[in-house]
Amino acid sequence: MPKLSIVIPCYNEEATVATLYDEFLDVFGREGIGFEVIFINDGSKDGTMQALREVAGRKAGRVRVVNFSRNFGKDAGIYAGLKEARGEYTVIMDGDLQHPPQVVVEMVRYLDGHPEADSVAARQAQRREGRVLSLFKRMFYSVINRMSQIEFVPGASDFRAFRRNMKDAILSMTEYFRFSKGIFSFVGFDTHYITYEARERGGGVTKWSFWKLVGYAIDGIIGFSVMPLKMITLVGGGISAVSFIYMVFVILQKLVWGIDIPGYPTLVVLVLLLGGLQLFALGIIGEYLGRNYIEVKKRPIYIAKEILDNSDTLIEKERPLKK
């Protein structure tokens, strides 16, 4: 059994996977750390799978490749990798060369020297992103920490190592809509945070656009908080109270002071305002209801088309891994 299992979800990482594996052989070989690598090909559109076959065929170390039948998303890739991991420690990394293997060595050393710690998570010392994106991320962490009962550490990424007990806890959470940052926080355990300098991408382009990040943030809020539903109740109660007070005021205007009541502009404004609020509220409810609809179907989190080991032998084919 290897000491370390490295889980790497890949989507269009043809140019980097071989270089990354060479770094593993060099860095972990010098440190004397036994390891296995689990690559997840998440429905890549380029030659990533062929590059992974070549890596697996080297027989220089234990490699497993899980080839998805289509793109299921990074969080499904993380779950698949954890299912295959057999090491004492498991680390999650990106396949674009931005996460240095030397940081993994630091994580392993910390876990070896601190038996009370269950996990080591990495945070970028300085993120290479624009001011607008940085502002929105700070706003996201501020909002979700106010809404959720668990703590989300700003800047903490999926780049982390943890012991087998934490891995098993993560795998016990089998929801279809997965938000890994929230799952890591939800399962708890003692986590130590370290900082690191992210490297430049080794090839390709980022898969995260601004709107994908917005959607990911919405997934996190809906997945780990019911506060939006409570806010609908509060807003509805507040509007009802204000409407009742205004109704009393209008009646007094007419009966006591005999003042004519202008109707059309007020009516139009109120109809548009309340109609918009109702549609917004239905949209929030629909998000929660739609996710429940998908969850009760009990669909697999991912479907593996094939699984290869480092002898490039087909282990299993067309195997749907269920919850």
Describe this structure in words.
The chain is α/β, with parallel strands linked by helices. The chain has a domain at 4-132 and 155-209 and 300-321: Spore Coat Polysaccharide Biosynthesis Protein SpsA, Chain A, CATH 3.90.550. 49% of the residues lie in helices and 19% in strands. The protein is built from 10 helices and 9 strands. It has helices spanning 17-31, 48-56, 74-84, 101-113, 131-147, 164-171, 180-187, 210-223, 227-257, 264-295, and strands at 4-10, 35-41, 62-68, 89-92, 119-124, 156-163, 191-196, 302-308, 314-321. It has a 9-stranded mixed beta sheet with strand order 7-5-6-4-1-2-3-8-9, with helices on both faces. α5 packs parallel to α8 (210-223). The longest helix is centred in the last third of the chain and has 32 residues, at 264-295. The protein is elongated. Mean pLDDT is 80; it is low at 312-323.
Question: Care to give the gist of this entry?
Answer:
The protein is an alpha/beta fold and 323 residues long.
Features:
single chain; Spore Coat Polysaccharide Biosynthesis Protein SpsA, Chain A; 9 strands; 323 residues; alpha/beta; 19% strand; nine-stranded mixed sheet
Q: Specify the number of helices.
A: 10
**Fraction of residues in H or I helices:** 40-55%
CATH architecture type of the domain at 4-132 and 155-209 and 300-321:
Alpha-Beta Complex
Read across the widest sheet, the strand sequence of neighbours is 7-5-6-4-1-2-3-8-9
Instruction: Write down the CATH class of the domain at 4-132 and 155-209 and 300-321.
Output: Alpha Beta
- Summarize the main sheet: 9 strands, mixed
Radius of gyration: 25 Å
| Average pLDDT | 80
Content-based structural category: alpha/beta
Report, as a whole number of angstroms, the end-to-end distance. Answer: 25 Å
Low-confidence stretches: 312-323
Fold-level CATH name of the domain at 4-132 and 155-209 and 300-321: Spore Coat Polysaccharide Biosynthesis Protein SpsA, Chain A
Order of helices and strands: EHEHEHEHEHEHHEHHHEE
Number of strands: 9
* Strand coverage percent: 15-25%
**Global geometry:** elongated
CATH superfamily assignment of the domain at 4-132 and 155-209 and 300-321?
A: Spore Coat Polysaccharide Biosynthesis Protein SpsA, Chain A
